Amino acid sequence: MTMQEIIETVRGFDGALVVTPEAGSDFPALSWGDAYFYHAPDGRMPERTQPYGTIITKDYPDDTASALNAPGRFRVNIHVGREQVASLVPVDTAPAEVDVFQRHPLYGAAGWVCVIDPAERTSESVLDLLRQAHESARQRSQRRAR
Predict the structure, then answer these.
(1) Which fold has domain 3-145?
(2) pTM of this prediction?
(3) What are the boundaries of each domain within the chain?
């Protein structure tokens, strides 16, 4: 599964906003080439809401365990909630292993999982979890609006 396939699928979710910072944009250079998924039916990036999913294409200064600086690698990060993390993540995975669910290297304890280069084993589940995360973000947004 390619990064673009994931982005196009998420763009199809009702009320989804996919932010993809590009070179020369107002976003920090480190974010260029990555993707951030929000529930934002008005099409504007929420100011006080974290994305429910991201795709990262490179190592960040405090996040290098996934070895994303290798050409063509990317990591999908999804907020699934603390309870679901344990059921998704196998006990023994190497931090740079591809096509397996792992705890997010920095935010696993906060309910985030990740998959490096989703493929045959994980691609369907990745899309299902992104749909669920989108729905959860939609519900949170509705509660805040009341």
Answers:
(1) Aspartate Aminotransferase, domain 1 (3.90.1150)
(2) 0.95
(3) 3-145
